[in-house]
Automatic annotation (TrEMBL):
Gene Ontology biological process: rRNA processing
Keyword terms of this UniProt record: Cytoplasm, Endonuclease, Hydrolase, Metal-binding, Nuclease, Ribosome biogenesis, rRNA processing, Zinc
Gene name as annotated: ybeY
Organism field: Qipengyuania marisflavi
Main location: cytoplasm
EC assignment: 3.1.-.-
Recorded coiled-coil stretches: none
Plastid as UniProt keyword: no
Name the UniProt record assigns to this protein: Endoribonuclease YbeY
Length: 162
């Protein structure tokens, strides 16, 4: 997958683009639909104010959140996508710096660890996974996240599984 990565308002202490690429590779290992070479996605590392605006405009929620996912293909369309052909936009992700940094501090982990989790989480949303309306889907999505993060050498972000 081709990633278009924009970084605005995140500290230059880490290579966020490299982290996004590694998170994608890990997500691809647990969700093979993401491995289609025709796919592209955009990732925006930005500030809370920008994510709040996006959240208000697209989800009618006037507050920032850690990560927003905007899929452009349904899971069925993604599964049916042939390996050959023109490029296909999978969707967009946006991460809010201040919210992510606050959550990382609350969890006692680095911003990089939390951002990796949110990137994997967002990629799985772009692949059609959900955790909102169905407990079984939520458990499946968490298991995929845990496995993907383990591929990156990162601990279980939920800390409640064996």
């Amino acid at each position: 997958m081709d990633l278009d990565i924009e970084i605005d308002g995140w500290p230059r202490t880490s290579d966020w683009a490299d982290l996004a690429e590694r998170a994608h590779e890990a997500a691809e290992r647990v969700e093979t639909l993401l491995a289609n070479r025709r796919l592209s996605a955009s990732i925006l590392f930005t500030v809370d104010a920008e994510v709040r605006t996006l959240n208000r405009e697209w989800r009618a929620k006037d507050q920032p959140t850690n990560v927003l996912s905007f899929p452009m293909l349904t899971r069925e369309e993604l599964a049916a996508l042939e390996g050959e052909g023109g490029p296909e936009m999978l969707g967009d992700l946006a991460l809010a710096h201040e919210t992510c940094a606050r959550e990382a501090a609350e969890k006692g982990i680095t911003l990089e660890q939390h951002a990796a989790h949110l990137l994997v989480h967002g990629m799985l949303h772009l692949a059609g996974h959900d955790h909102v309306n169905d407990d079984a889907q939520a458990e499946n999505m968490e298991a995929l996240e845990i496995t993907a993060l383990a591929h990156m050498g990162l601990a279980d972000p939920y800390g409640d599984r064996d």
